[in-house]
Structures are given as structure tokens and as C-alpha cells.
């Protein structure tokens, strides 16, 4: 070949391959090499001129395409299978004649077959990311989604024929062995034909693919199915970074879909996978909102999420608090709210024995649901009893704060009858109120009388008001205790199980 007969130019492509060329032939078409070499000639000792490209797009394969074009005097045809490599290489080498052909071919992308478009996208993701490949990939992706939208109503066989999918789609092989993967193999006949076809795309291109499907108002249920299929299959062999990207794409996409098309149970599956992957905080917030806003569909097992590794307590209580807040922010009422109230009460009873659960966190759980949503306080008061059993070192004030969440009217006759039998609750309220009363009297006696008289007067009036409030509270508690004593005498002894004292 002439290429070999007169080779005075040596080109190193990304350190992987060296190609020998005729400078005159290649510079006739390549503006980049003309600028680079200028009037350079071979050295007197006969050594070739050497050019090193460290970041040539597509490597030696795309470079050779351009050189063949140059050596054929511009008679090399651009087709869909070589467009991406040809276009990026011609851009790099500034071969105007090639660019004219590739630009014309790009305008006809929408007329390509399904397999040609998919191959072009695969080539784009194999090249180094650049504005050229990104722009080309966007056009190819538009064409792919357009073709998919045209055949969504067709049967798998007719759709495959219409879009000419790659012939080896049926020979797809899963990258790992697991029960979940086997289930996908067994159900392959029930999923759309294109699910396996699109698996060749990178997480970044899949993200663009999904956005276009949503923009094109593609069926939300089908998008959801594809998301979980793609996630589960890809997770088998993905790196940590790839797993993070896949999950973030999954969550971001699910967040904008119709919630009725998103299986609630699957959201908890995504949540479990997200732990330990350092998912973006904003994305995690979206997932927690999706779960929390539908909390009435959850079960106790769903909520019993182990706490993060650095936490001492057993369960991830803060997560449940955020779920409930998201649910309550939706201002849901009626049966949904009551169902969540029962669920939260079950959760409180489950976490109460945890010796590492702080009283402030336990109190937040007790006060989480509006009292109007609870028809009974039986579960609540048993949970408090268990919590106090596991936390013997609580201060009088901390115990009082927990007991104040109980409502006497929402306890059974049996519970009321045995309130006074539990030594853990005896006289907690009265002692606490009396102590606060004494402290306020001391404040009045020790108050600083210097300064503005008007401010001093307001300060003393404020303290006096708090004293009056405490006196009323103490009187109310004493009255309630008398009522409890009278009622307990008229009821049977019942069981000997420890039960808590109540407050107003």
C-alpha cells in the first residue's frame, strides 16, 4: 500500500498504538496536522516525524477511519455504524470534508433502525465525554425514545420487528447468580422486549433516557418496572459509585412519577440499598418523603430499620420521626391518620425496652401523633412502663414528662384500677410540682431589685402567674388521684402487672 511505501509521519494514539503515515496525504485533509507540522520535514538521519495524541476520541479505531478516508481521496462513506467514531475523530483532526458528511448523516438519525441508534449510543458512552459526544448522544437518545413511543402499544414480536432490535437480545446473560436474578429470568416473557436491550446503556445515559420518557408522557407503570429491573440487574456487578448513581437515578425518577404506579414495598427495598452508599442528602430526602407521605401503607416490620453503625440505639428512630412528619405535613385525616397512629404506637412499644434510647427521643415518639388520632392509650402507657423499667436512672422531671403524655379517659378500667400498684410511678407528679413551686418562691425572694421598677414589676407578676398555674395543676392532680382511688376500690383486683400512674 502507498500508506506503507512512503511513511514519513509516525503517530502515537493514546500510547496504545503507533500508525505510520504519509505526511503529505494526511495533511491534505487534516487542518489539525497542518497546523501542528507546518513545514516540518524528515530529519537528515532519516528518522520520521513523530506526533503523540494522548486523548484522541475513540482511540486507534476512529483515527484509522479518518486515515482511510484521506488515503481514499475522500471516497470513504459515512454510515450509522461508523458515524459516532468518524464524527468525533474528524472534529479532533479538523477534517472538514468528513464533518460535512457526518453532519448530513446526523440529520437523518430519526430514520435509523432501533439497533443502529442503540449502537451509536453505546459508542458515545465508550468515548471520552465531550461537548461533541454529549450533543450527539442527546440526538441519538431522542431518536431512541421516539421509536419506543411509536411501538409501545404493539406486541413484543411486532415491536421488535418494527424497530429492528439487535439480534442477540434474546441471548442476554445476567452477570451474577441470585434468587432475584433467577426470578427475572423466569419472568422474562412478561417484561417488554426493550428492557434487556437498554441494559447496555450506562447509568448516565439511562438517566437521560428516563427523563425523555417522562417528558414524552410515557406510561408511568412501565417506567417504574424498567427502573427496578435495571437497578436489580445492574447492581450485581456495579461498583460502589455506579450503585450510588443507579440508586440516585431511581429515586429521582420515582419521585416525579404517579405514586399509584410505584409499589410502596419497593421503596423500602431502595432504602435498604441506599444505606452505606453515601447517597446525596437531597435525593435521600425525596425517598423519605415518598415513604412518609404514604405511611399508612407501611407495616411495623418496614419501620424496624436498624440504626446507623455509629449510633448506640437499636433502631433508626430519627428516620421514623421524619416519616411521620412527612405524613402529617400532608394534613391527612380520618382512617389514614388513625392507622398511622396505631402503627406508631406499635413502634413505640417495640423500641421502648432499648436501654440506649434517650428520654428526649422517646418523648418525641410519644408526642408525634395528635392525641385526637388515638382512641386508646393502652399501648402508650404499657410502652412507658417498659421504658421506665429499662431506664431506672431517669430524673423525676424526665419521668414526669413521659407520664404527662397519657390521658386518663383513654385507658381501660383494668388499667385505671392498677395504676397505684406500680412503685415506679408513685408520687412523681406531686413531688415534681412541689419542687418547682419552692424554686419559684425562692426566685421571688432573691430577685434583683436594682434597675428599672417597671421591668421589675413585670418580672414579679410573671413569676406569680407561674406559681398560680402550678398551684392549679397540683390541685387538679390531687382531685384526679382521689377519683382514681375511689374507682379502684369499686373494681376487681385484676392482674398484678405493673401499670403507670397518670397525670392530666
Automatic annotation (TrEMBL):
Belongs to the NPH3 family. This is Phototropic-responsive NPH3 family protein. It comes from Eruca vesicaria subsp. sativa. PANTHER family: OS12G0117600 PROTEIN (PTHR32370). It comes from the Eukaryota. Residues 7-73 form the BTB domain. SMART domains: BTB (SM00225). Residues 484-504 are annotated as: Disordered. Residues 192-440 form the NPH3 domain. Residues 491-504 have a biased composition (Polar residues). Keywords: Ubl conjugation pathway. Pathway: Protein modification; protein ubiquitination. The lineage of its organism: Eukaryota, Viridiplantae, Streptophyta, Embryophyta, Tracheophyta. It holds the Pfam family NPH3. InterPro entries: BTB/POZ_dom (IPR000210), NPH3/RPT2-like (IPR043454), NPH3_dom (IPR027356), SKP1/BTB/POZ_sf (IPR011333).
Amino acid at each position: 500500500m502507498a500508506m506503507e511505501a512512503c511513511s514519513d509521519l509516525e503517530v502515537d494514539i493514546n500510547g496504545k498504538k503507533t500508525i505510520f503515515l504519509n505526511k503529505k496525504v494526511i495533511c491534505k485533509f487534516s487542518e489539525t496536522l497542518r497546523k501542528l507540522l507546518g513545514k516540518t520535514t524528515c530529519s537528515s538521519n532519516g528518522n520520521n516525524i513523530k506526533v503523540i495524541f494522548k486523548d484522541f476520541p475513540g482511540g486507534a479505531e476512529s483515527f484509522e477511519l479518518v486515515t482511510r478516508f484521506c488515503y481514499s481521496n475522500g471516497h470513504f462513506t459515512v454510515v450509522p455504524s461508523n458515524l459516532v467514531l468518524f464524527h468525533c475523530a474528524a472534529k479532533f483532526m479538523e477534517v472538514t470534508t468528513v464533518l460535512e458528511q457526518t453532519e448530513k448523516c446526523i440529520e437523518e438519525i430519526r430514520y435509523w433502525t432501533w439497533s443502529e441508534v442503540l449502537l451509536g449510543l453505546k459508542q458515545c458512552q465508550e468515548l471520552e465525554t465531550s461537548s461533541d459526544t454529549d450533543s450527539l448522544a442527546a440526538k441519538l437518545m431522542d431518536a431512541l425514545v421516539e421509536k419506543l413511543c411509536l411501538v409501545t402499544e404493539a406486541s413484543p414480536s411486532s415491536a421488535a420487528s418494527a424497530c429492528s432490535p439487535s439480534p442477540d437480545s434474546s441471548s442476554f446473560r445476567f452477570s451474577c447468580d441470585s434468587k432475584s436474578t433467577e426470578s427475572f429470568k423466569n419472568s422474562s416473557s412478561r417484561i417488554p422486549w426493550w428492557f434487556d436491550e437498554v441494559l447496555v446503556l450506562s447509568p448516565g445515559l439511562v438517566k437521560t433516557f428516563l427523563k425523555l420518557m417522562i417528558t414524552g408522557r410515557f406510561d408511568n407503570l412501565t417506567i417504574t418496572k424498567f427502573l427496578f429491573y435495571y437497578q436489580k440487574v445492574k447492581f450485581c456487578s456495579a461498583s460502589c459509585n455506579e450503585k450510588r448513581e443507579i440508586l440516585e437515578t431511581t429515586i429521582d425518577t420515582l419521585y416525579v412519577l404517579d405514586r399509584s404506579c410505584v409499589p410502596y414495598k419497593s421503596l423500602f427495598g431502595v432504602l435498604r440499598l441506599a444505606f452505606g452508599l453515601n447517597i446525596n442528602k437531597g435525593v435521600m430526602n425525596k425517598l423519605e418523603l415518598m415513604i412518609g407521605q404514604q405511611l399508612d401503607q407501611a407495616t411495623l416490620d418496614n419501620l424496624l430499620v436498624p440504626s446507623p453503625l455509629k449510633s448506640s440505639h437499636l433502631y433508626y428512630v430519627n428516620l421514623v420521626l421524619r416519616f411521620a412528619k412527612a405524613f402529617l405535613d400532608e394534613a391527612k385525616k380520618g382512617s389514614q391518620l388513625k392507622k398511622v397512629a396505631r402503627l406508631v404506637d406499635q413502634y413505640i412499644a417495640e423500641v421502648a425496652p432499648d436501654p440506649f434510647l434517650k428520654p428526649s427521643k422517646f418523648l418525641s415518639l410519644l408526642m408525634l401523633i395528635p392525641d385526637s388520632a388515638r382512641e386508646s392509650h393502652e399501648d402508650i402507657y404499657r410502652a412507658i412502663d417498659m421504658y421506665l423499667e429499662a431506664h431506672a436512672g431517669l430524673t423525676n422531671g424526665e419521668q414526669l414528662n413521659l407520664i404527662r403524655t397519657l390521658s386518663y379517659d383513654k385507658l381501660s378500667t383494668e388499667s385505671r384500677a392498677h395504676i397505684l400498684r406500680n412503685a415506679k410511678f408513685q408520687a412523681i407528679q406531686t413531688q415534681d410540682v412541689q419542687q418547682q413551686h419552692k424554686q419559684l418562691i425562692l426566685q421571688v425572694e432573691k430577685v434583683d431589685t436594682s434597675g428599672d421598677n417597671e421591668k421589675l414589676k413585670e418580672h414579679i407578676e410573671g413569676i406569680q402567674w407561674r406559681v398560680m398555674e402550678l398551684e392549679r395543676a397540683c390541685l387538679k392532680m390531687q382531685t384526679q388521684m382521689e377519683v382514681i382511688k375511689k374507682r379502684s376500690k369499686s373494681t376487681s383486683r385484676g392482674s398484678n402487672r405493673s401499670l403507670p400512674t397518670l397525670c392530666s
